[in-house]
Amino acid sequence: MKAKNTFTIHTELINGTLSGVRNIYMGANSTCHLYVIPRDEINIANSIADISGQPAFYILLGDTNALKPEAYIGQTTDFANRKNDHVQKKDFWKTALVFVSDNHKIYGDDVKYLEYLGIESAQSVESFALLNGSNPRKPNIAPFRVNDMEVFFRDIQLLTRFYGCGIFDAPVAKPQPEHLFYVHATDRPAEGMGYYDENSKQFVLVKGCIIASQVVASFKSIAARQKFIDEHCKTEKGQIILQHDVPMDSPSGASGIILGRPSNGWDDWKDADGNKLGKVVKRQ
User: Fold this and answer.
1) Which of 86, 102, 105, 277 has the most CB atoms within 10 Å of its CB?
2) pTM for this one?
3) Comparison of pLDDT for 122 and 133, the residue scoring more
4) Parallel, antiparallel, or unpaired for β 70-76 and 129-130?
5) Using CA atoms, how far apart are residues 117 and 10, in angstroms rounded to an integer?
């Protein structure tokens, strides 16, 4: 059974290849069509009835694999003609996304309003570097057309996402690698690795740590350490190996378990550059 909001997005491969010219649309759900046209095939716009001589909202895309891709957002009453100027004067773009209405009931002022919405939306998220020289003023169109164009623009955003372009979406923050710290014993096989979790205020021992097999006489938490080993470690080739990441309440507790001796974790844990944990992380 289909959900109420289920609909189909169609992709027509105009020249039979996934990397070539495509027509992406939602059938009866919307009149909005997205034509994806690679730069080296841009002249096909002259022969597409939906594009030639028709108003259009469009996006010129540069290298989308760049750290911050470049783009230009525009509007025209005839993209088949307008493209010629962009081919001659703009070298950065590799692909044109051309949005039209299949019933040809979008007009010159309408696409100006779409351009205004597009630039405003793209600038608000700053995912792409817009190469538009200036921001268009908000066009004055009839109130009922404002509503129609805002609905149409939502379809533009949807088809843009479907194509795989995030120009209207805030960039997803990439997780930063953890700042790792290390500890090791000089008199026995024991090597630890972990990081301080600023959110939980815990020190996390990382899978693969080698736990000392014996403890010194001054180490007091023998029973708790053995319980930790039983729950989280396995003996492999005579070494006690941590099997998964384990958060610890304190850096000192973590290093004590690794070394099998009393330890001041704020001093004993050091990063790859030799910086002590206590110098890198502010104690709470």
Assistant:
1) 277
2) 0.64
3) 122
4) parallel
5) 25
